[in-house]
Amino acid sequence: MRRIIAEDPDWSLAIVASLSNLCLLSIVTHFEEKPIFDQLTPIQKDFVQERLSTSLRLRVTANLISDGVYWRRCCEQRWDLCDVSHYGHSWKRMFFERHLESIIELFIPDTTESRLVLEMVPLCKNYVKRLDLSQLLPPLKEEEEEEGSELASENEYDGPSVDHFDFNILLDKLTNLEELHLVYRVKQCGMNFEWKMFEMTDRDCELLTKALKSCKSLKLLRLHQSHIEDKKCRLLVKCLLDHPALKELDFSHNLIGDRGARALGKLLARSNLETLNLCDNDIRGPGARAIAHSLSKNSTLLSLNLRLNRVRDEGGQAIGKALLNNNTLLHLHLGGNEVTWHTAVALSKVIVQNNTLRSINLSCNNLGVDGGKALEEAMSHNSSVTECDIRLTEVDEQSVSSINQVVWTNQSSYRKRHAQEIKTK
């Protein structure tokens, strides 16, 4: 007997490809030279997307292939972790956001050509809604000249043109950008460590302020761990005073002091901010009083985080007094601020009178027994606070138990109301 062994292991005499499938396979093979996609039916598009090479040039696929199987394959082949829920369940959005992030994070000023970024804009601008940048590289250091060599003339080298990536070349072109997360640092500096690798320079700040003015769609700005002090904070706030869309501002883990806090107080008075995060800065009593002054007149802010500052009772009492005239704020965090029972008493008056506040965090402060008693008495008259964190505050255990019992009751009532609202809808 004679045996015939097929070269194609998937070949079978019982399965003969249809003419339409052969045509679609031809489209897949020659897609880069002659891309045909819009004319296909949905079933045919799925067939093509499952077989197209993920190494095709983006200028061919970006604005032609719709969100679906092809972009999922591109993402899963390039990255190990692909949680599409973080990208509005859009694989195409995930691919272009992460691809653009990688280009910017590896961009070296005066070395990488700006063309690499600008060429991506027409391809990705319709899909990029968030940029989360975990590093920004500085220019390459000039090699030191050998001993005995002649000194270069002053005009021969004037230093790098920028200290980090210049966002002016990009932000005004990303018309759908809603969130920008920045940190001025280098993730893997090795033996080349220098402190300046972990801070925003004055020139960076000036360039970023210009770029932010042009980004009218921005709703969230997060600029953390970047050595931002009062001068830079004031420059940034100045460009954000009349921003049309900004809702959330996060300047956590920086060096902002009282002068920067005063500028942020002006921002609260002239913007529509809903969330302000100033965790882990150097804001003290005067700065907290400036924020409190604006808070008493503000009608948009929902969350204020001042954790790990030094507002002490001067600032804590001012905020408590401001909240007596505020019916908007839902969440207040004053943990780790060296406040005492005086602040607890001021906030107790708020708890009794204000029915808007939902959560208060006073953890890691020395409230003492008197502060605990004041909060306990106030909570017995409150039905809106569903979170009251008083861990590590030297409050008496009996007061802690009573406060927690009221919180649990309020939580249960809130869940019932929420469920009832859903049913009525």
Textual characterization of the structure:
It is a single chain. This protein is an alpha/beta fold and 425 residues long. The chain has helices at residues 19-29, 42-49, 58-61, 69-78, 91-105, 115-118, 121-124, 202-214, 230-240, 258-270, 285-295, 312-323, 341-353, 368-379, 397-424, and strands at residues 130-132, 179-182, 220-223, 248-250, 275-277, 303-305, 331-333, 359-361, 387-389. The protein is globular and about 100 Å long. 35% of the residues are buried.
SSE blueprint and pairings:
Blueprint: H1 19-29, H2 42-49, H3 58-61, H4 69-78, H5 91-105, H6 115-118, H7 121-124, E1 130-132, E2 179-182, H8 202-214, E3 220-223, H9 230-240, E4 248-250, H10 258-270, E5 275-277, H11 285-295, E6 303-305, H12 312-323, E7 331-333, H13 341-353, E8 359-361, H14 368-379, E9 387-389, H15 397-424
Parallel strand pairs: 1-2, 2-3, 3-4, 4-5, 5-6, 6-7, 7-8, 8-9
